[in-house]
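User: I'm new to structure prediction. If I give you an amino acid sequence, what do you actually give back? Let's try with this one:
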Amino acid sequence: MTSQRIYGRKLWLTIDGTDKAADIKECMLEPDDTPADDLTFGDAAAGVSSGKLSITAIQSTDPDSFWRYCWANAGEELPFRMAAHGNDVPSATQPHVAGTVTVGARPAIGGKADPRASYEFKVEWTAKIDADLITAP
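Assistant: Good question. You get back a string of structure tokens that encode the predicted 3D arrangement of the chain. For your 137 residues, that looks like this:
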């Protein structure tokens, strides 16, 4: 039997409880076996690992845009939850990944002169990733 694939049709990414996927073009969560610099004994006991969350998104200064959110929350450590299948409710076959991210420096704004161009920006945030996948609501 073939495993269920993950397609690039939907993504569900909440940061501090708010879905931010609408402005995101690319999103990659990469766990790393190296312990985070600020790992606590509680984190270690829970099996938390470190990693990075890399995002490419559109530039928009709309009040609810992801760009504006990054600008306003630079340096904050916030909870995140990611569903690569785009499902609101986790399941055994479509689990969610959770943890906390530290929002990096304020994002870039602008780009080259081109009336057809849509500007985008990239961020790479440090993440603490929970050991267990979330498989039930």
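You can read the tokens as a compact description of the fold. Here is one thing that stands out. The two ends are 27 Å apart (CA to CA).
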